[in-house]
Amino acid sequence: MNAINKPEKQALARTVLELDVNNHAGVMSHVVGLFSRRAYNVEGILCMPVGDGVSSRIWLMVGEDIRLDQMVKQVEKLEDVLAVRRHGAEHQVFERLEEFFR
Amino acid sequence: MPRPTTETLTGAQIVVRLLERQGVRTLSGIPGGAILPIYDALSQSSLIHHVLARHEQGAGFIAQGMARASGEVAVCMASSGPGATNLLTAIADAKLDSIPMLAITGQVPTPMIGTDAFQEVDTYGLSIPITKHNFLVGSAQELLDIIPRAFRLAASGRPGPVLVDIPKDVQNQAVEISEWPAPGVADPVLAAPAELIEHAAAMINAAARPILYLGGGVVHSGASELAVALAEKASLPTVMTLMALGAMPVDHSLSLGMLGMHGARCTNFALDECDLLIALGARFDDRATGKVAAFCPQAKIIHIDIDCSELDKIKTAHVGICGDVAAVLRQLAPQVGAQLRAPWLSRVAVLKAEHPLRLPGVDDARTPYGLIRAVADGLDEFGDQAIVATDVGQHQMWVAQAYPLRRPRQWLTSGGLGTMGFGLPAAIGASLAQPERTVVCFSGDGSILMNVQEFATAAEEDVNVKVVLMNNASLGLVFQQQTMFYGERIFASKFKGVPDFVKVAEGFGWRTLDLDLTDDPRAALRRALALRGPMLIHASIDMREQVLPMVAPGASNKDMIGG
């Protein structure tokens, strides 16, 4: 990625993944480990408990990549992942956070 | 109804009781500070036989040997820190070969986690990428859920290793138990969509040159007979991966043996010509496919696997069916028409005649192939009652090529991870699981030293394990690759100091046979193999012997060297 300058980097297509997961220590590690061990960068991460706190929702922003289908299948295989939904880069969850990153 | 009786038990006692309730009767491990409460509870069990390994990696592979031979979840144990890190290689090996295993590790007490306490290591973090799932237990109560779940996870779907890390205070914590959970068993398998089955059947019926490609999943799902029956009904020439050897008897008329890097020329040539590849429980591993773009270039692909993430991972399937191989074959077989396929079978027969697997020296028991066949002949009439384990290297490939494997679960080898040191402890485990069988472990002088300490365990348990040590005083496969691909620059692959393995084994209390010193190696082998108990059979092999044919790593399977 180093050879790509910033505007080009932003032009790369993004995907937003929405994961429902069990809420306990280690779940995040299971999820991001799948990406890091493939040298697949996760650009953005958000996680908050939902409802009574038994489960959490993880939002991931990742680059569109030929490996993405395989990544989603691998994430779905994790015991603590209850559901995975794919959204386009236009999803607002990260967009609306951007003011905290200026 | 009588009121359920309430017992007060510690976490350690709960673990042991849950293992007993799962039907565990043998497990392997090594105690240490952080797992002593569980060992104390284990000492009171009249049902579980604990096998004391001499290195935790040995304990892990003993459990693997039990699991591979039986198909049941097997258990190993280790203490925290180095005990846990020593287990990791055996766990990673189980992950890559989809072996159902439960590893239980002790951990420092909860309040000390994260303080760099004595023998503390992040076992949970270390084991994430090499387990199917893992747990760090927070309370004794949780064990009632976690232990049965761990068994269920290890056995369900694509089997694999599960690790449960239990802090010492949790092991000592007492809780009241009034009700026990049901033992964890594999989830039931689901039926595959009817339209995919129809589509696959139509493709098989329409194919002119189909090949059936069996992987380890066929063995795991108990689908060998169904796969052979399908091959016979539809006249499908059949190839096997290293992990699937034994699924179809190697002398079956439809068998093309092992495919890939060290497969016969006829096998890889047939794949090159096929117009339909039916992959059952196989994952298109690079050692099987060679250069993927050149693998079965003319073929449509039907891929059946219980792990949905294997479909389209390496090769895009024309029909991908996510399901248990046995269940899918039961649905599929009635829709596949009986065919003779005479033109294709005669073409395959021509390939077999022109490019057979060459086994030079097979009649001479002092050559690699000859020794392997002599061992098979010396075991029993068909050589298929025994279990055959291997280490990793040239000897492993020679055995894969030459041993007449004829039944599933006869063959125990480290396929995915390729772990030297696998053979001896895995053979011990197989013998513990099936004591009525002779277990032969083919090994090399490089591999055997990697878990040589398990000679002591084997002697202590008096297992019926025969180690056939093919000694070429080198790391043979490295030597071979340096000879073939690195301009014969032999480096770090020849041993200058070679131990006297016969004396080493005798020192551990093993009986020994040095074939180098016998006039009639076949007769000596027959006598040695008939004796019960551990036995080292030592045979010197020429360092320049090679495993052939060979596909260079990254090359196309049809570009084979030698053979």
Summary tags:
heterodimer, A: 102 residues, alpha+beta, Alpha-Beta Plaits, 4-stranded antiparallel beta sheet, globular, B: 563 residues, alpha/beta, Rossmann fold, 3 domains, 6-stranded parallel beta sheet, 22 strands, 37% helix
Distance between the termini of chain A: 22 Å
How do the SSEs of chain A run, as a string of H and E?
Answer: HEHEEHEH
Q: State the CATH superfamily name of chain A.
A: ACT domain
Extended strand count of chain B: 22
Provide the residue-averaged pLDDT of chain B.
Answer: 97
Binned, the helix content of chain B reads 25-40%
The CATH topology assignment of chain A is: Alpha-Beta Plaits
Our count of domains of chain A comes out at 1
Largest interface, chains and sizes: A-B, 14 and 14 residues
CATH class division of chain A: Alpha Beta
How many strands, which pairing sense, and closed or not: the largest β-sheet of chain A? Answer: 4 strands, antiparallel
- Estimated share of beta-strand residues of chain B: 15-25%
- Name the average pLDDT of chain A: 89
Rg estimate of chain B, integer Å? 24 Å
Total number of helices of chain A: 4
Give the full name of the CATH homologous superfamily of the largest domain in chain B: Thiamin diphosphate (ThDP)-binding fold, Pyr/PP domains
CATH second-level architecture of chain A: 2-Layer Sandwich
Determine the strand fraction of chain A and express it as a percent band: 25-35%
Low-confidence stretches of chain B: none
**Oligomer type:** heterodimer
What does this structure look like?
The complex is a heterodimer of chains A (102) and B (563). Chain A is of the alpha+beta class and 102 residues long. Chain A has a single domain, classed as Alpha-Beta Plaits (2-Layer Sandwich). Chain A is built from 4 helices and 4 strands; from the N terminus they run H-E-H-E-E-H-E-H. Chain A has helices spanning 6-11, 27-36, 68-77, 92-95, and strands spanning 14-22, 42-50, 55-63, 81-88. Chain A has a 4-stranded antiparallel sheet, covered by helices on one side. In chain A, a hairpin with a 4-residue loop joins strand 2 (42-50) and strand 3 (55-63). Chain A is globular and about 35 Å long. Chain B contains 22 helices and 22 strands. Chain B has 3 domains: 7-177, Thiamin diphosphate (ThDP)-binding fold, Pyr/PP domains (Rossmann fold, 3-Layer(aba) Sandwich); 194-354, 3-Layer(aba) Sandwich (Rossmann fold); 368-547, Rossmann fold (3-Layer(aba) Sandwich). In chain B, 37% of the residues lie in helices and 18% in strands. By secondary structure, chain B is of the alpha/beta class. In chain B, strand 6, helix 6 and strand 7 (161-167) form a beta-alpha-beta unit. In chain B, strands 3-2-4-5-7-6 form a 6-stranded parallel sheet, with helices on both faces. The chains are: A alpha+beta (102), B alpha/beta (563). Chain A binds chain B through residues 25-26, 29-30, 33, 37, 69-70, 73-74, 76-79, and chain B through 124-125, 128-129, 132-134, 136, 153, 307-309, 312-313.
